[in-house]
Amino acid sequence: MKNAFFLKTINLPEELKLILYLLKGDKPRKIDSALLKDIDWKQFMELSLHHRVYPILHSKIKQLDAIPPHVRNFLSNQYKSNTLQMLQLSGVMEGLSREFALNHIQVIFLKGPALAHDLYGDISMRTSSDLDLLIPIEQLGKADNLLINQGYEKDDYIHTVLNDWKWRHHHVTYFHPVTKVKLEIHWRLNPGPAYEPFFKSLWDRKRTSKLTTFPVYLLSKEDLFFFLISHGARHGWSRLRWLVDIGQLLEQDFHWGKTQKVIKKCHYQRAAGQGLLLASQLLEAKLSNRMRVIANKTSSKQLAQQAIFYLERQVNLHTDPVPEEIARYHKSHLFSLMSIQQRAFFILSFLYPYPEDYQTLPLPKPFHFLYFPLRPFLWVWRKKRKHALP
């Protein structure tokens, strides 16, 4: 086709190219022997874990003799372990939904078994290491008391001044030392200062999961698309599972017109175009003509190609610390994803005091408003001090 655009994937590891080939389509595919040439099977298994796609790979290759037996056994064991974990999380999820309802706390489950069942029809086909719950910000205190009483321990890592946590952060983490279950309690879908739908709108449009007996609520399909797109883009699509989720959602019936309204209102057209193009070209996800209008924009093509950087290097943004080269690239990539309005809010957010300002110059709480005029001077002071240190 004239002027057809194709992502440059020549530098992807051969093992990742094989994984992408296997992920395409619903049924197991006959593997071309050329794809198996020079495959490092240890790297193949590591990538299956990194990208969280081993349950799907297991279902695709369990009967393919072309795959070495030890690789099939590895994926089978990982699949079984994940199934047990998802069953445990299903029970915890339903129990939490019941407890929150009894305490009049509105809760929407963002990921976990409910999402796996919704997208794949089978909780064992998607991985999840924790449960993500979205609740109204004004009910955080009530939820905190409830979870502490149930034995959860809060990871109180958020430092704040002038309540900037409300928009700079978007969740807090809890961990149960006995059950080993980790929870992320969200009051936003994504960290600020980006705009997103209010909780009331999400609640009014919510769906009920078909997985459990007691009602467990999910985002509407339109809001789910927005969440998956914004979450995947924020992490550079560094895990294929997020793109596979998009592909699964595109197979379902949902109102693209309503979805576009949410995306446009929140200024996420660039991220949506990027995600759609990546899912289409890497996984052969089917796009409607209206979706292709967004995916075929020049910005979508540029941003999609930029995301290949993360796949080429097996980037893990959850490592601490993130390598300097990766952190620098990711910071630039996130800025390129922003609309003009988002960039304006982002730049203005630097004028709002940070916890570091308090650490640099501790002031009594009644005088915290002084951090607004003092912030530029404190920032310069920290920079000079940093350069002066050996």
Automatic annotation (TrEMBL):
Superkingdom field: Bacteria
Protein name: Renal dipeptidase
The organism of origin for this protein: Oceanobacillus halophilus
Lineage start: Bacteria, Bacillati, Bacillota, Bacilli, Bacillales
